[in-house]
Amino acid sequence: MTTTTDRPVQEASQTPPAPGGSPRLSDRGLAVAFISPALLLLLGMSVFPLLWALYLSFTDYSATRDVPANFIGLRNYTDILTSDQVRIRALTTLIYVVGAVTLQTVLGFAIAYLISRRTKGRGALTTLFLVPMMLSPVVVGLFWKFMLDAQFGVINSMLGSLGFGQVEWLTRQRTALFSLIVVDTWQWTPFIMLIALAGLTAVPNYLYEAASIDRASEWFRFRHITLPMVWPLLLIAVMFRAIEAFRLFDLVYILTSGGPGVSTETLSFHVYKVAFLGFNTGTASAYGILMVLVVIVLAQFYLRYLNKLKEG
Amino acid sequence: MAISIDEAVPAPAQAAEDAPAGRRRGGTARRVIEVVLLVALAVAMLFPVLWMLETSIKENRDVYAVPAKFFNFDFTTIHYKDVFVGRDGGRSDLSGSFLNSVIVAGASTILATVLGVPAAWAYSRFTLKAKKDQLFFILSTRFMPPVVVVIPIFLMYRELGLIDSKLGLVLIYAAFNVPFTIWMMKGFVDEVPAEYEDAAMLDGYTRLQAFRKFTLPLLVPGIAATAVFALIFSWNEFVFAIFLTSSQEVRTAPPAIAGLIGGTTVDWGLVAASAVVFALPVLVFAFLVRKHLVAGVTLGAVRR
């Protein structure tokens, strides 16, 4: 090792470390030096705030009053878990998450399947379909708000020329949540499409060729070759979307502000109202901790599955 | 980065071509239906974007026309001028917000890259205790609901005097981008054989020098792609921006654009124009990294 002649000049004075204990030790030091700054930032900006929220969730603290926080035990949690209001918001969130993710999955997979059967122009088509996904939720929310406007919105205008009456998309109890689901579907269908497409194009050709020799029907090929090959990736995409939909806030804020009434008030939006309009910081923290628990459970499923997929 | 999606996505099975002759007619009809469906879906997906573009160049009275005018509207660039030039002829508030967005997104991306890339390299190269758990922990911090995290962050920033400051936004965006950067970069580092560094170390370089001189240059395209995604995430972010900033000097573009619909009358032409100006850089950047989109949008978790 030390006899290497073409060692770089600037290194000449430095003796290469002897094999054995010391390089390992320096590796360890290097690893710590490289990893700890990133981890410190995460501890300071993610973990510490969550621990603080956990502490606040056991108190009646309010961010606007100058009164020190009183420890009230689990009262915030029992209040939340027994409240009818929260049950309604949880149901709204559930309808929204299931509705939006189902629609996105069906549409996204359908588009991916159709694109994967084209030979020409697939790149251009894929790029075009991906545009909504890259836009900020603010832009998406604002723009759909304009298009869904009851008086001069283009959607009602088109429905009008087809002979339908005007629909108050965002200001009626029934249609508001539906509109929210439609807008989210519009934005995130490309996400499912992109990942489904990655799965579809990874199916090896020889499987189809073999099926073709066996005169297998189109449906058989789809059911027994395409679907099993794409399913794992698709599930990843669906879980990812479910987590994102569960924590969605910006679209609700811009499109409906939770209204009319509380018909589009998801759990995320309700936390915001309790924390920043009601200033019940303690209660909002308890809410937040419960939401984080849900997210952690969902994320664990997601990561476990991802891990299994990588090893398998 | 000049590889098109056609190359990045391998050609699919064209089994339909091999179908026996008897089925061919059914195949043609089916193909027509498929193309029609695809075109219909493409129109539905793209219409809102086109409508936004069109609204941004329409005279105000055509913007509110009922029934909507699709083609025969009067053209104007006044909305785009309003985005950048204020009523008094000086710089508009919106253009100031765009500048803030550039600064905040840029600085947080740099910070996330500087912290994330070395960490990703270390996670890729060294055997560490509970490495998998550490990596999963890192990614799960990214899944926290922003509206929940913002409550304690708000209180913390109030203590530290970081409320309504660019530094505060930069820090929280960096913290949200670091998990992504580590996961995405670890994939890129894994692709560079560790033997390069071993060979360099045999030549007498230290581990750190081997990383800097041999691995790092090979990682540059990956770092660029990762940074672009981090830039897009910070640029589009809304929840932290609206709760942690209030003054015009600090406010970034997303809350500023959302603020345009606060009043009693809404200038939708201006909203459309500023949305276009805001979205255009994102689309350009996304197009540049289209090869890495699958990894990028899944936070580096899914790779092909």
What would you say this structure looks like, in words?
The complex is a heterodimer of chains A (312) and B (304). Chain A has 12 helices and no strands. With 312 residues, chain A is an all-alpha fold. Chain A has one domain: MetI-like fold, CATH 1.10.3720.10. By secondary structure, chain B is mostly helical. Chain B folds into 2 domains: 67 residues, no CATH class; 205 residues, MetI-like (MetI-like fold, Orthogonal Bundle). In chain B, helix 5 runs parallel beside helix 8, helix 5 packs antiparallel against helix 10 and helix 10 runs antiparallel to helix 13. In chain B, 45% of the residues are buried. Chains A and B meet through helix 1, helix 3, helix 4, helix 5 and helix 6 of A and helix 2, helix 5, helix 6, helix 7 and helix 8 of B.
- The computed structural class of chain B is mainly alpha
Please name the CATH architecture of chain A: Orthogonal Bundle
Question: Radius of gyration of chain A over alpha carbons?
Answer: 27 Å
Most strands sheet of chain B: none
Give the domain tally of chain B: 2
Helix content of chain B: 55-70%
Strand content bin of chain B: under 5%
The CATH homology group name of the largest domain in chain B: MetI-like
CATH fold description of chain A? MetI-like fold
Using the CA coordinates, give the radius of gyration of chain B.
Answer: 24 Å
Low-confidence stretches of chain A: 1-22
CATH homologous superfamily designation of chain A: MetI-like
Can you identify the CATH class of chain A?
Mainly Alpha
**Corresponding CATH architecture of the largest domain in chain B:** Orthogonal Bundle
User: Which CATH class of the largest domain in chain B?
Assistant: Mainly Alpha
Structural topology:
The complex is a heterodimer of chains A (312) and B (304).
Chain A: H1 21-56, H2 75-82, H3 84-116, H4 122-134, H5 137-147, H6 154-161, H7 173-201, H8 205-213, H9 218-246, H10 250-255, H11 267-277, H12 281-311
Helix pairs in contact in A: 1-12, 3-7, 3-9, 4-7, 7-9, 9-12, 11-12
Chain B: H1 5-8, H2 24-56, H3 60-63, H4 78-84, H5 93-125, H6 131-142, H7 146-160, H8 166-191, H9 195-202, H10 207-236, H11 239-244, H12 253-258, H13 268-288, H14 293-297
